[in-house]
Amino acid sequence: MSTQQALLQRIQDRSAVSSVIGLGYVGLPLAMELCEAGFQVVGYDVSARVCDLLMRGESHIQDVPAEQVARHVRSGKFVATTDPAALDRADTVSIAVPTPLAKTRDPDMSYVLSAAETVSAHAHRGMLIVLESTTYPGTTRELLQPRLEARGLAVGSDVFLAFSPERVDPGNPTFHTKNTPKVVGGITAACNTVATAFYQSTIDTVVPVSSPEAAELVKLLENTFRSVNIGLVNEMAIVCDRLGVDVWEVIDAAATKPFGFMKFTPGPGIGGHCIPLDPHYLAWKMRALNYKTRFIDLASEVNSAMPDYVVEKVAWALNDDRKAVKGAKVLILGVAYKRDIDDMRESPALDVMRLLEERGAHVQYHDPHIPSFREDGHEFTGVALTDALLDAVDVVVVVTDHKVVDYQRVADRAALVVDARNVMAKVTPGRARVVALTSSRPQGGSGAA
Ligand code: SAJ
Fold first, then answer.
1. Segment 47-105, tens digit of pLDDT
2. Which one of 226, 280, 351 would you pick to mutate in the ligand 1 pocket, going by the greatest count of ligand atoms within 8 A of its CB?
3. For this structure, is 35 an active site residue?
4. Topology adopted by domain 305-444
5. Distance between CA atoms of 78 and 54, rounded to whole angstroms?
6. Domain 3-212: which topology?
7. Which of 121, 159, 253, 305 is deepest in the core (most CB within 10 A)?
Protein backbone atom coordinates (compact mmCIF):
# COMPACT_ATOMS: atom_id res chain seq x y z
CA MET A 1 0.00 0.00 0.00
CA SER A 2 1.41 3.40 -0.99
CA THR A 3 1.93 6.21 1.53
CA GLN A 4 -0.98 8.05 -0.07
CA GLN A 5 -3.30 5.05 0.16
CA ALA A 6 -2.30 4.39 3.78
CA LEU A 7 -3.03 8.00 4.73
CA LEU A 8 -6.34 7.99 2.89
CA GLN A 9 -7.23 4.83 4.78
CA ARG A 10 -6.39 6.40 8.13
CA ILE A 11 -8.49 9.43 7.24
CA GLN A 12 -11.33 7.18 6.14
CA ASP A 13 -11.33 5.05 9.29
CA ARG A 14 -10.59 8.04 11.53
CA SER A 15 -7.45 6.44 12.92
CA ALA A 16 -5.51 9.45 11.63
CA VAL A 17 -4.40 11.92 14.30
CA SER A 18 -5.28 15.45 13.19
CA SER A 19 -3.49 18.54 14.42
CA VAL A 20 -4.30 22.22 14.21
CA ILE A 21 -1.62 24.87 14.62
CA GLY A 22 -3.09 28.10 15.99
CA LEU A 23 -6.15 27.79 18.26
CA GLY A 24 -7.82 31.10 17.51
CA TYR A 25 -11.10 32.05 15.81
CA VAL A 26 -10.17 29.80 12.85
CA GLY A 27 -8.19 26.95 14.41
CA LEU A 28 -10.36 26.19 17.44
CA PRO A 29 -13.64 25.81 15.51
CA LEU A 30 -11.82 23.58 13.01
CA ALA A 31 -10.33 21.48 15.83
CA MET A 32 -13.78 21.02 17.34
CA GLU A 33 -15.30 19.99 13.99
CA LEU A 34 -12.48 17.46 13.52
CA CYS A 35 -13.31 16.04 16.95
CA GLU A 36 -16.99 15.86 15.99
CA ALA A 37 -15.93 14.01 12.82
CA GLY A 38 -14.25 11.38 14.99
CA PHE A 39 -10.57 12.33 14.79
CA GLN A 40 -8.14 12.40 17.66
CA VAL A 41 -7.09 16.07 17.61
CA VAL A 42 -3.90 17.71 18.83
CA GLY A 43 -4.21 21.46 19.10
CA TYR A 44 -0.89 23.28 19.12
CA ASP A 45 -0.54 26.91 20.16
CA VAL A 46 2.40 28.97 21.37
CA SER A 47 0.20 30.49 24.08
CA ALA A 48 0.27 28.53 27.33
CA ARG A 49 -2.64 30.66 28.53
CA VAL A 50 -4.80 29.48 25.63
CA CYS A 51 -3.77 25.83 26.02
CA ASP A 52 -4.36 25.90 29.76
CA LEU A 53 -7.84 27.39 29.49
CA LEU A 54 -8.81 24.92 26.77
CA MET A 55 -7.54 22.00 28.87
CA ARG A 56 -9.73 23.34 31.72
CA GLY A 57 -12.68 22.94 29.36
CA GLU A 58 -13.10 26.68 28.75
CA SER A 59 -13.36 28.56 25.45
CA HIS A 60 -11.91 31.95 24.47
CA ILE A 61 -13.70 31.96 21.10
CA GLN A 62 -17.27 33.31 21.03
CA ASP A 63 -18.47 30.76 18.45
CA VAL A 64 -17.09 27.75 20.35
CA PRO A 65 -19.15 26.73 23.39
CA ALA A 66 -17.05 25.82 26.44
CA GLU A 67 -19.25 22.74 26.79
CA GLN A 68 -17.97 21.43 23.46
CA VAL A 69 -14.34 21.97 24.44
CA ALA A 70 -14.92 20.35 27.82
CA ARG A 71 -16.63 17.36 26.25
CA HIS A 72 -13.77 16.66 23.86
CA VAL A 73 -11.09 17.24 26.49
CA ARG A 74 -12.92 14.93 28.89
CA SER A 75 -13.27 12.19 26.27
CA GLY A 76 -9.58 12.49 25.45
CA LYS A 77 -10.38 13.36 21.82
CA PHE A 78 -8.88 16.84 22.10
CA VAL A 79 -5.66 17.98 23.70
CA ALA A 80 -4.16 21.47 23.54
CA THR A 81 -0.42 21.79 23.97
CA THR A 82 2.52 24.17 23.57
CA ASP A 83 4.83 21.22 22.90
CA PRO A 84 5.60 20.95 19.16
CA ALA A 85 6.83 17.39 19.68
CA ALA A 86 3.16 16.45 19.87
CA LEU A 87 3.11 16.95 16.10
CA ASP A 88 5.37 13.91 15.67
CA ARG A 89 2.29 11.70 15.96
CA ALA A 90 0.07 13.83 13.73
CA ASP A 91 -1.03 12.53 10.35
CA THR A 92 -2.63 15.82 9.28
CA VAL A 93 -1.61 19.39 10.16
CA SER A 94 -3.83 22.43 9.49
CA ILE A 95 -2.04 25.75 9.98
CA ALA A 96 -4.30 28.61 11.08
CA VAL A 97 -1.96 31.32 12.36
CA PRO A 98 -2.30 35.10 11.93
CA THR A 99 -1.14 36.86 8.79
CA PRO A 100 -1.24 40.54 9.81
CA LEU A 101 0.25 43.49 7.99
CA ALA A 102 3.39 45.18 9.29
CA LYS A 103 3.28 48.93 10.00
CA THR A 104 4.68 49.34 6.46
CA ARG A 105 1.50 47.64 5.16
CA ASP A 106 3.72 44.77 3.95
CA PRO A 107 2.77 41.17 4.83
CA ASP A 108 4.02 39.99 8.22
CA MET A 109 4.79 36.35 7.48
CA SER A 110 6.55 35.71 10.78
CA TYR A 111 3.76 33.53 12.18
CA VAL A 112 3.54 31.42 9.00
CA LEU A 113 7.33 31.04 8.86
CA SER A 114 7.43 29.97 12.49
CA ALA A 115 4.67 27.43 11.88
CA ALA A 116 6.45 26.19 8.73
CA GLU A 117 9.64 25.65 10.73
CA THR A 118 7.72 23.82 13.45
CA VAL A 119 5.88 21.58 11.00
CA SER A 120 8.95 20.72 8.92
CA ALA A 121 10.88 19.89 12.10
CA HIS A 122 8.21 17.34 13.01
CA ALA A 123 7.09 16.24 9.55
CA HIS A 124 7.24 12.59 8.64
CA ARG A 125 6.23 10.31 5.76
CA GLY A 126 2.49 10.01 5.43
CA MET A 127 1.67 13.52 6.69
CA LEU A 128 -0.81 16.00 5.15
CA ILE A 129 0.00 19.67 5.71
CA VAL A 130 -2.55 22.35 4.85
CA LEU A 131 -2.00 26.11 5.19
CA GLU A 132 -5.28 27.96 5.94
CA SER A 133 -4.01 31.44 6.80
CA THR A 134 -4.91 34.15 4.29
CA THR A 135 -1.76 34.98 2.34
CA TYR A 136 -0.31 36.03 -1.00
CA PRO A 137 -0.33 33.60 -3.96
CA GLY A 138 2.79 31.42 -3.91
CA THR A 139 3.21 31.19 -0.13
CA THR A 140 2.47 27.46 0.11
CA ARG A 141 4.83 26.56 -2.73
CA GLU A 142 7.58 29.04 -1.81
CA LEU A 143 7.63 28.89 2.00
CA LEU A 144 6.35 25.44 2.97
CA GLN A 145 7.34 23.06 0.15
CA PRO A 146 11.13 23.76 0.27
CA ARG A 147 11.20 23.23 4.05
CA LEU A 148 9.57 19.85 3.72
CA GLU A 149 11.83 18.82 0.86
CA ALA A 150 14.87 19.92 2.89
CA ARG A 151 13.89 17.14 5.28
CA GLY A 152 14.14 14.68 2.39
CA LEU A 153 10.35 14.41 2.13
CA ALA A 154 9.02 14.38 -1.42
CA VAL A 155 5.87 16.49 -1.70
CA GLY A 156 3.19 14.47 -3.47
CA SER A 157 4.45 11.04 -2.43
CA ASP A 158 6.03 11.14 1.05
CA VAL A 159 4.02 14.13 2.31
CA PHE A 160 1.03 15.98 0.91
CA LEU A 161 0.81 19.78 0.86
CA ALA A 162 -2.14 22.08 0.06
CA PHE A 163 -3.69 25.50 0.71
CA SER A 164 -7.26 25.85 1.92
CA PRO A 165 -8.49 29.36 2.73
CA GLU A 166 -10.33 29.91 6.01
CA ARG A 167 -13.80 31.37 5.62
CA VAL A 168 -14.71 31.88 9.26
CA ASP A 169 -17.07 34.79 9.85
CA PRO A 170 -17.10 35.26 13.64
CA GLY A 171 -20.59 35.65 15.05
CA ASN A 172 -22.33 34.57 11.83
CA PRO A 173 -25.51 32.86 13.03
CA THR A 174 -25.94 30.83 9.83
CA PHE A 175 -22.55 29.90 8.42
CA HIS A 176 -19.88 28.16 10.45
CA THR A 177 -16.90 25.90 9.78
CA LYS A 178 -18.87 22.75 8.91
CA ASN A 179 -21.41 24.25 6.51
CA THR A 180 -19.20 26.79 4.72
CA PRO A 181 -17.81 25.35 1.47
CA LYS A 182 -14.06 24.69 1.71
CA VAL A 183 -11.78 25.43 -1.25
CA VAL A 184 -8.69 23.20 -1.47
CA GLY A 185 -5.66 23.49 -3.78
CA GLY A 186 -2.85 20.87 -3.62
CA ILE A 187 0.71 21.13 -4.90
CA THR A 188 0.17 17.91 -6.87
CA ALA A 189 -2.85 15.87 -7.88
CA ALA A 190 -2.09 13.43 -5.07
CA CYS A 191 -1.92 16.34 -2.62
CA ASN A 192 -5.31 17.49 -3.86
CA THR A 193 -6.77 14.01 -3.48
CA VAL A 194 -5.56 13.64 0.10
CA ALA A 195 -6.46 17.19 1.19
CA THR A 196 -9.91 16.89 -0.39
CA ALA A 197 -10.57 13.55 1.31
CA PHE A 198 -9.43 15.00 4.63
CA TYR A 199 -11.77 18.01 4.54
CA GLN A 200 -14.63 15.92 3.10
CA SER A 201 -14.46 13.87 6.31
CA THR A 202 -15.43 16.95 8.31
CA ILE A 203 -16.91 19.72 6.14
CA ASP A 204 -20.15 19.46 4.16
CA THR A 205 -18.85 20.84 0.84
CA VAL A 206 -15.27 20.75 -0.46
CA VAL A 207 -14.27 22.60 -3.63
CA PRO A 208 -10.97 21.34 -5.12
CA VAL A 209 -9.06 23.74 -7.40
CA SER A 210 -6.01 23.01 -9.50
CA SER A 211 -3.24 24.61 -7.44
CA PRO A 212 -2.43 26.26 -4.10
CA GLU A 213 -2.05 29.57 -5.95
CA ALA A 214 -5.62 29.32 -7.20
CA ALA A 215 -6.83 28.59 -3.66
CA GLU A 216 -4.78 31.46 -2.23
CA LEU A 217 -6.25 33.81 -4.84
CA VAL A 218 -9.83 32.64 -4.19
CA LYS A 219 -9.71 34.11 -0.67
CA LEU A 220 -8.02 37.30 -1.85
CA LEU A 221 -10.64 37.75 -4.57
CA GLU A 222 -13.46 37.26 -2.05
CA ASN A 223 -12.20 39.96 0.26
CA THR A 224 -10.88 42.31 -2.41
CA PHE A 225 -14.37 42.13 -3.93
CA ARG A 226 -15.74 43.46 -0.63
CA SER A 227 -13.10 46.14 -0.20
CA VAL A 228 -13.60 47.46 -3.75
CA ASN A 229 -17.40 47.49 -3.48
CA ILE A 230 -17.31 49.16 -0.09
CA GLY A 231 -14.95 51.73 -1.59
CA LEU A 232 -17.41 52.24 -4.44
CA VAL A 233 -20.35 52.99 -2.16
CA ASN A 234 -18.19 55.20 0.03
CA GLU A 235 -17.28 57.24 -3.04
CA MET A 236 -20.97 57.23 -4.03
CA ALA A 237 -21.76 58.71 -0.61
CA ILE A 238 -19.38 61.59 -1.32
CA VAL A 239 -20.83 62.01 -4.82
CA CYS A 240 -24.37 62.13 -3.44
CA ASP A 241 -23.31 64.59 -0.78
CA ARG A 242 -21.99 66.96 -3.46
CA LEU A 243 -25.18 66.52 -5.49
CA GLY A 244 -27.52 66.90 -2.51
CA VAL A 245 -28.91 63.39 -2.97
CA ASP A 246 -29.55 60.79 -0.23
CA VAL A 247 -27.11 57.95 -0.98
CA TRP A 248 -29.06 55.54 1.23
CA GLU A 249 -32.19 56.15 -0.84
CA VAL A 250 -30.17 55.53 -4.01
CA ILE A 251 -28.64 52.31 -2.69
CA ASP A 252 -31.94 50.98 -1.33
CA ALA A 253 -33.62 51.66 -4.66
CA ALA A 254 -30.72 50.09 -6.62
CA ALA A 255 -30.98 47.04 -4.37
CA THR A 256 -34.49 46.40 -5.71
CA LYS A 257 -32.81 45.17 -8.89
CA PRO A 258 -33.33 41.41 -8.57
CA PHE A 259 -30.21 40.52 -10.55
CA GLY A 260 -26.76 41.89 -11.22
CA PHE A 261 -26.50 44.05 -8.13
CA MET A 262 -25.21 43.39 -4.59
CA LYS A 263 -25.93 45.88 -1.81
CA PHE A 264 -23.09 47.45 0.12
CA THR A 265 -23.48 50.44 2.41
CA PRO A 266 -21.23 53.46 3.05
CA GLY A 267 -19.68 53.94 6.44
CA PRO A 268 -16.87 55.59 8.39
CA GLY A 269 -14.25 53.29 6.82
CA ILE A 270 -13.43 49.61 7.04
CA GLY A 271 -12.13 47.59 9.97
CA GLY A 272 -11.61 44.00 10.92
CA HIS A 273 -8.90 41.44 10.50
CA CYS A 274 -9.75 40.64 6.87
CA ILE A 275 -11.03 43.34 4.54
CA PRO A 276 -8.54 46.11 5.34
CA LEU A 277 -5.63 43.65 5.22
CA ASP A 278 -6.17 40.80 2.77
CA PRO A 279 -6.14 42.84 -0.47
CA HIS A 280 -2.75 44.28 0.52
CA TYR A 281 -1.28 40.78 0.39
CA LEU A 282 -2.12 40.65 -3.29
CA ALA A 283 -1.01 44.24 -3.95
CA TRP A 284 2.32 43.49 -2.28
CA LYS A 285 2.88 40.34 -4.35
CA MET A 286 2.02 42.10 -7.60
CA ARG A 287 4.35 45.03 -6.83
CA ALA A 288 7.15 42.49 -6.71
CA LEU A 289 6.05 41.48 -10.21
CA ASN A 290 5.98 45.11 -11.35
CA TYR A 291 2.23 45.30 -11.60
CA LYS A 292 0.14 47.95 -9.80
CA THR A 293 -3.19 46.59 -8.59
CA ARG A 294 -5.11 49.82 -9.16
CA PHE A 295 -8.52 48.66 -7.89
CA ILE A 296 -7.04 47.46 -4.59
CA ASP A 297 -5.01 50.62 -4.13
CA LEU A 298 -7.90 52.94 -5.06
CA ALA A 299 -10.39 51.15 -2.80
CA SER A 300 -7.91 51.32 0.05
CA GLU A 301 -7.40 55.04 -0.63
CA VAL A 302 -11.15 55.77 -0.59
CA ASN A 303 -11.91 53.56 2.42
CA SER A 304 -9.04 54.86 4.53
CA ALA A 305 -10.08 58.46 3.82
CA MET A 306 -13.56 57.93 5.31
CA PRO A 307 -12.59 58.66 8.94
CA ASP A 308 -11.30 62.08 7.79
CA TYR A 309 -14.55 62.60 5.90
CA VAL A 310 -16.56 61.86 9.05
CA VAL A 311 -14.45 64.25 11.11
CA GLU A 312 -14.93 66.98 8.48
CA LYS A 313 -18.68 66.41 8.78
CA VAL A 314 -18.40 66.84 12.55
CA ALA A 315 -16.39 70.04 12.15
CA TRP A 316 -18.92 71.54 9.76
CA ALA A 317 -21.85 70.48 11.92
CA LEU A 318 -20.32 72.12 15.01
CA ASN A 319 -19.46 75.16 12.94
CA ASP A 320 -23.13 75.51 12.01
CA ASP A 321 -23.78 75.65 15.76
CA ARG A 322 -21.11 78.34 16.03
CA LYS A 323 -18.85 75.89 17.87
CA ALA A 324 -15.27 74.79 17.20
CA VAL A 325 -14.03 71.23 17.31
CA LYS A 326 -11.42 72.49 19.75
CA GLY A 327 -12.91 72.08 23.20
CA ALA A 328 -16.05 70.40 21.90
CA LYS A 329 -17.50 67.57 23.99
CA VAL A 330 -17.86 64.64 21.57
CA LEU A 331 -19.52 61.26 22.27
CA ILE A 332 -18.62 58.44 19.88
CA LEU A 333 -21.41 55.87 19.69
CA GLY A 334 -20.07 52.39 18.78
CA VAL A 335 -16.34 51.70 18.40
CA ALA A 336 -16.29 48.02 17.31
CA TYR A 337 -15.29 47.51 13.68
CA LYS A 338 -18.83 46.44 12.76
CA ARG A 339 -22.18 46.21 14.48
CA ASP A 340 -23.07 43.77 17.25
CA ILE A 341 -19.58 42.40 17.84
CA ASP A 342 -16.87 43.13 20.41
CA ASP A 343 -13.88 43.27 18.04
CA MET A 344 -11.86 46.48 17.69
CA ARG A 345 -9.27 45.34 15.17
CA GLU A 346 -8.50 48.09 12.62
CA SER A 347 -11.73 49.78 13.65
CA PRO A 348 -12.24 53.14 11.86
CA ALA A 349 -13.54 54.48 15.18
CA LEU A 350 -9.93 54.56 16.34
CA ASP A 351 -9.07 56.96 13.52
CA VAL A 352 -12.15 59.11 14.09
CA MET A 353 -11.32 59.45 17.80
CA ARG A 354 -7.66 60.21 17.12
CA LEU A 355 -8.44 62.84 14.48
CA LEU A 356 -10.95 64.57 16.76
CA GLU A 357 -8.52 64.57 19.68
CA GLU A 358 -5.80 65.98 17.44
CA ARG A 359 -8.15 68.91 16.77
CA GLY A 360 -8.63 69.46 20.50
CA ALA A 361 -11.99 67.81 21.05
CA HIS A 362 -12.82 66.11 24.36
CA VAL A 363 -13.77 62.62 23.12
CA GLN A 364 -15.64 59.92 25.06
CA TYR A 365 -17.19 56.74 23.73
CA HIS A 366 -20.08 54.45 24.51
CA ASP A 367 -20.10 50.89 23.17
CA PRO A 368 -22.22 48.24 24.92
CA HIS A 369 -19.98 45.50 23.54
CA ILE A 370 -16.66 47.12 24.42
CA PRO A 371 -16.49 48.45 28.00
CA SER A 372 -12.80 49.24 27.52
CA PHE A 373 -9.93 48.66 25.11
CA ARG A 374 -6.19 49.23 24.78
CA GLU A 375 -4.70 51.05 21.80
CA ASP A 376 -1.09 52.15 21.35
CA GLY A 377 -0.41 51.43 25.00
CA HIS A 378 -3.32 53.57 26.22
CA GLU A 379 -6.38 52.20 28.05
CA PHE A 380 -9.74 53.64 26.93
CA THR A 381 -12.84 53.16 29.07
CA GLY A 382 -16.32 53.63 27.74
CA VAL A 383 -18.99 55.74 29.44
CA ALA A 384 -22.58 54.85 30.24
CA LEU A 385 -25.19 56.30 27.90
CA THR A 386 -27.17 58.55 30.24
CA ASP A 387 -29.63 61.39 29.62
CA ALA A 388 -27.26 63.71 31.44
CA LEU A 389 -24.45 62.78 29.08
CA LEU A 390 -26.62 63.22 25.98
CA ASP A 391 -27.75 66.61 27.28
CA ALA A 392 -24.19 67.68 27.97
CA VAL A 393 -22.25 66.74 24.83
CA ASP A 394 -21.97 69.08 21.87
CA VAL A 395 -22.21 66.29 19.31
CA VAL A 396 -22.88 62.55 19.19
CA VAL A 397 -21.11 60.68 16.35
CA VAL A 398 -22.63 57.32 15.36
CA VAL A 399 -19.65 55.32 14.10
CA THR A 400 -20.89 51.75 14.65
CA ASP A 401 -24.62 51.08 14.82
CA HIS A 402 -25.02 48.33 17.41
CA LYS A 403 -28.66 47.21 17.41
CA VAL A 404 -28.94 47.30 21.20
CA VAL A 405 -28.49 51.10 21.46
CA ASP A 406 -31.68 53.22 21.89
CA TYR A 407 -31.31 55.68 19.01
CA GLN A 408 -34.72 57.21 19.67
CA ARG A 409 -33.38 58.34 23.02
CA VAL A 410 -30.37 59.85 21.25
CA ALA A 411 -32.70 61.67 18.82
CA ASP A 412 -34.78 62.97 21.72
CA ARG A 413 -31.98 64.09 24.04
CA ALA A 414 -28.94 65.09 21.98
CA ALA A 415 -28.57 68.50 20.36
CA LEU A 416 -26.54 67.34 17.38
CA VAL A 417 -25.86 63.92 15.86
CA VAL A 418 -23.45 63.11 13.01
CA ASP A 419 -24.62 59.76 11.71
CA ALA A 420 -22.12 57.67 9.70
CA ARG A 421 -24.42 54.64 9.52
CA ASN A 422 -27.84 56.11 8.62
CA VAL A 423 -29.33 54.68 11.78
CA MET A 424 -31.03 57.93 12.86
CA ALA A 425 -33.24 57.86 9.75
CA LYS A 426 -35.00 54.89 11.30
CA VAL A 427 -36.25 56.73 14.42
CA THR A 428 -38.74 59.58 14.88
CA PRO A 429 -37.04 62.98 14.57
CA GLY A 430 -36.58 64.57 17.98
CA ARG A 431 -34.61 67.41 19.50
CA ALA A 432 -31.40 66.46 17.73
CA ARG A 433 -30.31 68.04 14.48
CA VAL A 434 -29.05 65.06 12.50
CA VAL A 435 -26.23 65.38 9.95
CA ALA A 436 -25.88 62.23 7.88
CA LEU A 437 -22.67 61.01 6.26
CA THR A 438 -24.17 62.20 3.01
CA SER A 439 -27.05 64.45 2.09
CA SER A 440 -30.25 63.10 3.48
CA ARG A 441 -33.89 63.96 3.63
CA PRO A 442 -34.47 66.94 6.00
CA GLN A 443 -34.77 65.64 9.55
CA GLY A 444 -34.61 66.70 13.13
CA GLY A 445 -35.86 69.49 15.30
CA SER A 446 -34.34 72.74 16.43
CA GLY A 447 -31.12 71.17 17.62
CA ALA A 448 -30.64 74.35 19.64
CA ALA A 449 -28.32 73.73 22.53
N1 SAJ B 1 -18.46 47.54 5.74
C2 SAJ B 1 -19.01 48.68 5.17
N3 SAJ B 1 -19.99 48.54 4.24
C4 SAJ B 1 -20.44 47.31 3.85
C5 SAJ B 1 -19.86 46.15 4.44
C6 SAJ B 1 -18.89 46.29 5.38
O7 SAJ B 1 -18.63 49.81 5.50
O8 SAJ B 1 -21.34 47.24 3.02
C9 SAJ B 1 -17.38 47.68 6.73
C10 SAJ B 1 -17.74 47.09 8.07
O11 SAJ B 1 -18.33 48.06 8.91
C12 SAJ B 1 -16.37 46.64 8.60
C13 SAJ B 1 -15.60 46.28 7.33
O14 SAJ B 1 -16.27 46.93 6.25
O15 SAJ B 1 -15.72 47.71 9.26
C16 SAJ B 1 -15.53 44.79 7.07
O17 SAJ B 1 -16.83 44.31 7.16
P18 SAJ B 1 -17.25 42.84 6.65
O19 SAJ B 1 -18.74 42.79 6.60
O20 SAJ B 1 -16.52 42.47 5.43
O21 SAJ B 1 -16.87 41.92 7.88
P22 SAJ B 1 -15.54 41.13 8.22
O23 SAJ B 1 -14.34 41.99 8.24
O24 SAJ B 1 -15.87 40.40 9.47
O25 SAJ B 1 -15.37 40.14 6.99
C26 SAJ B 1 -15.60 38.77 7.17
C27 SAJ B 1 -14.89 38.10 6.02
N28 SAJ B 1 -14.84 36.70 6.26
C29 SAJ B 1 -13.71 36.04 5.94
O30 SAJ B 1 -12.71 36.59 5.49
C31 SAJ B 1 -13.72 34.59 6.16
C32 SAJ B 1 -15.63 38.38 4.72
O33 SAJ B 1 -15.08 37.56 3.68
C34 SAJ B 1 -17.09 38.08 4.87
O35 SAJ B 1 -17.76 38.31 3.64
C36 SAJ B 1 -17.65 38.98 5.94
O37 SAJ B 1 -17.01 38.57 7.17
C38 SAJ B 1 -19.16 38.83 6.09
O39 SAJ B 1 -19.82 38.67 5.04
O40 SAJ B 1 -19.63 38.95 7.22
1. 999 999 999 999 999 899 999 999 999 999 999 999 999 999 999 999 999 999 988 88
2. 226
3. no
4. Rossmann fold (3.40.50)
5. 9
6. Rossmann fold (3.40.50)
7. 159
